[in-house]
Amino acid sequence: MKKLLLLSMVAIFLLGNELYFLPFEAHKAQKKLLFWIDNAKNSIDIAIYSFTNKTIAKHLKNAAKRGVKIRIVADYKQNLKSRYSQIGYLAKYKNIDIHLLQGKYVKRGEYYGKMHMKLAIIDYKRLIFGSANWSYSAFRSNYELLYFLEEYAKAKKAKKYFNLLYSLASSY
Questions:
Q1: 132 or 113, greater pLDDT
Q2: Which CATH number is 72's domain given?
Q3: Domain range holding 44?
Q4: Over the range 90-107, which residues count as b (16 or more CB within 10 Å of their CB) and which as e?
Q5: Are 140 and 26 in contact (CB under 8 A)?
Q6: Whole-angstrom distance, CA of residue 68 vs CA of residue 100
Q7: What b/e sequence results for 12-44 when a residue is b if at least 16 CB atoms lie within 10 Å of its CB, and e otherwise?
Q8: Is there a domain that residue 1 lies in?
Q9: Model confidence band, residue 107 (pLDDT cutoffs 50, 70, 90)
Q10: pLDDT (average), residues 65-72
Q11: Distance in angstroms (rounded) separating the CA atoms of residues 44 and 71
Q12: Does 7 map to a domain?
């Protein structure tokens, strides 16, 4: 039984599937996130509520300079009003396309929901998702999780959902 469990854990690690709990494993999680960004070959699609982490933004900029096509769908209100948002910084670069999206309108309360997703799809095969925004507080002080999954079928399904969000969003 122990051997089977150990083999399962090794297989999961080899497939690239890893779960990190923040802030306890923040350094390892950010290192893996940056590694996947740095090794992207074709595309990175990101749906994110809050994006204030300059380190991650710089790695995305460098990926775009290498020719990687980057599309970001971010929450409309959070990223237009925050002076710390990296969305405006990234929008200046070739190969980076930014769209903003509000959540659905709620008539009863007369407000818009949030585009609260935290998802990245890299090269149609890698997924990063969880509760963590790409912010300093998510990696330093919040209790969050990030899951890294390398599986084509799930990435394909996530890409379909991302494309729907992208089609509903407005260009930055």
A1: 132
A2: 3.30.870.10
A3: 17-171
A4: beebebbbbbbbbeeeee
A5: yes
A6: 20
A7: eeeeeebebebbebbeebbebbbebbeebeebb
A8: no
A9: confident
A10: 98
A11: 6
A12: no
Crossing angle of helices 26-38 and 54-65, in 10° steps, is 10
At 78-103, the pLDDT tens digits run 877 778 999 999 999 999 999 999 88
82: in domain: yes
pLDDT at 166 over 70: yes
Number of independent structural domains in the chain: 1
1-24 confidence digits (pLDDT tens): 444 443 344 334 434 799 999 999
4 domain-assigned: no
- What is the pTM assigned to this prediction? 0.86
Inter-CA distances, 121 with 43, 55, 80, 128, 145, Å: 8, 19, 23, 7, 17
Residue 145: Cβ-neighbour burial (10 angstroms; 0-12, 13-18, 19+): middle
- Token pair listed for 166: 């992208």
